[in-house]
Amino acid sequence: MPDTHRPQSAVERIQERVAEKAARRAAARAAEDRSTDPLPHDGATRSTIVATERREAARPAPEVPSESELPGVHAEKPTQIPASGWKQIVKRAWAENSADNMPIIGAGVAFFAFLALFPAMIATISLYGLVASPETVARQIQSLSDQLPTEAQALLSTQLNNIVDSSGGALTVSLIISIAAALWSAAGGTGNLITAVNLAYDEVETRGFVKRKLLALGLTFGAIVFVLITITLIAVVPALLDALPLGIVGTILAQVVRWGLLLGVMAGALSILYRMAPDRDAPKFRWVSLGSIVVTVLWALVSLLFSLYVNNFGSYDKTYGAIAGVIVLMLWLQLTCFLVLLGAEINSEAEHQTAADTTEGEPQPMGQRDATMADELPDPPTPTKESKQKA
Questions:
Q1: Predicted confidence band at 28 (pLDDT cuts at 50, 70, 90)?
Q2: Whole-prediction pTM
Q3: Which H/E stretch holds residue 54?
């Protein structure tokens, strides 16, 4: 006899949500079929059926808690959620981060990101090398790793030199094939990140292989564009600033603006990831921006502290010898993936906090938005020991 008191696992929760999602889509298709069916099923006219379904859809969601129970329950945007509401969001996000095993999943994503890193570098240098020499490209890309620990910098520098030695500047058939192969390999790592973000949003992948692969390729190409923009801000703009007579104050202001733009570009890239990766109706940008900003600031601080620790207190070179660079780079990637997935949890719980429709398009009642976090309200608002066990 099965144990009915056994805590529900994360896999079982996801399976239930898959079934609910499939039922919602089947009900929507059935309603659409009835609205176009010239023969009513129960004697009612087609217009009556459509009007009834619209009236049912417009009915307010039942059992919406009060503002005192769920602060920000009627918020139209994240900035309308009060501090007490954000306290609930952060607690739930941290609890969900543990319940979804995001530290372990982030480590897995980091491993595949490491495998995809060098194919992505090959594609970047090959594309950028069409308008600049591969040596210039490699030198500018290498400047991106200046804040990384010394061991990671040495590993990236060696690999960049190897890529440059085998790169060409002409657009040939072999170059096109190598770029396509590199993008395809790099998209494998992006696909694993899509899966992890889906888990953070409590969604399950139902898109077909082709659609999912095209999304992964598109996000991979977008990541390459992000790297090229970052190269411009880190490696190219300083040379231009040095050539301009800005003075001390002007130079300081320009540097502040430059780093602000860099963080803004990263936050924007994360917003696109959080909006496009989950298999659900896309959230409005306002509901993915805040988590992106939080992650960007945390990532900058954590990367700086990690670099200081490894360079001054760590002994990875003595412990791991020749593979110290690999270990350090994978640790940094694991920290990065963990923060990215934590940002997804924060965004998803922010949507969970409000009964307002957070998805794009015309407002829909709860239960019809094709997005788990937008279709439900948290129960309880703040995680308890019992709710954590059920998770």
A1: low
A2: 0.75
A3: helix 46-58
pLDDT range class, residue 115, cuts 50, 70, 90: confident
Q: Phi and psi dihedrals of 25, rounded to 5? A: -65, -40
Lowest mean pLDDT, pick from 77-81, 140-144, 291-295, 315-319: 140-144
Please state the domain extents for the chain: 7-50, 95-390
How far is residue 292 CA from its own chain's centroid? Answer: 8
Q: Are 234 and 141 in contact (CB under 8 A)?
A: no
348: amino acid identity, one letter:
S
CA–CA separation, 299 vs 340, rounded Å? Answer: 9
Contact 224, 231 (CB under 8 A): no
What is each CA distance from 135 to 144, 145, 149, 154, 161, in whole angstroms? 15, 16, 23, 17, 8
Quickly count: other Cβ atoms within 10 Å of residue 204's Cβ. 19
What DSSP character marks residue 73? T
Output b/e per residue, 237-248; b: 16+ Cβ within 10 A.
Answer: beeeeeeeeeee
What would the two tokens of residue 149 be? 């620990």
Number of residues that this document lists for the chain: 391
| More confident: 368 or 163 | 368
Q: Is the pLDDT of residue 92 over 90?
A: yes
Tokens of 37: 């069916």
